[in-house]
Each structure stands twice: as C-alpha cells, then as structure tokens.
Amino acid sequence: QVQLIESGGGLVQAGGSLRLSCSASGLTFIGYTMGWFRQAPGKEREFVAASTWSNGATSYVDSVKGRFTISRDNAKKSVYLQMNTLKPEDTAVYYCAATRAGGIQTLGTAYIYWGQGTQVTVSS
Length: 124
Description:
By secondary structure, this protein is mainly beta. 0% of the residues lie in helices and 49% in strands. Strands 2, 4, 5, 6, 9, 10 and 11 form a seven-stranded mixed β-sheet that branches. It is globular and about 40 Å long.
C-alpha cells in the first residue's frame, strides 16, 4: 500500500520559514515525479512545485519563485519543501503527490498518489 506522509506544517508569522517533509512508502520512488500542491479555504487546489526523478528538474508556481525550494532525497524516499519569507496568502493545506508520468507535471490530475496534507498557517 502506497503512503505519502507529510509533516512540518504549523503556525508561523509572516516573514518566517517552514520546511515540509514528505516520506513515501510502498513505492520504489524510482522514476517518480514528486509534487507539492496546496489548497486554501474556498479555493481550488493549486500546484506549488515539482521535482523530476530523471534529471532533478524543478518547477514552481510564480507566486513562490525565489521563496520556496523543492528538494528530494531518493535514498530516503523523501521530498521536501523549504518555504521562506512566508506570506499570509501562503496559508493552506499542503499536499505531497507522486506520479510516474515523465517530466514536470503541474496538473493535479496527473498525480496518482496523494498524502493527507499538512496545515500551514501564516499570520500577519
């Protein structure tokens, strides 16, 4: 059974930092593109960042470029999201996701495995 388990969410003041972690089990991790998505109350799920297996390519939504960094440790079957200079508009539930589709995938429908989510709240 595939499981993606996120951790690291919490409450932080604007300008602060958080590091989200996602640990995968039940899958090889080899060949998987890993992504982070978020969903704020009353809004649709939004792509945040992704990292490919093949060449470590990364992609970010414009609103987090320069502030967030996605990384992965394939040996630990883990992916991380370092979030700096957080803003109140970053408040959301953050989800880790995995797909075998090649390359960078920004659509949620391309991902087949999802974590349960971790809450990030940024106070002003």
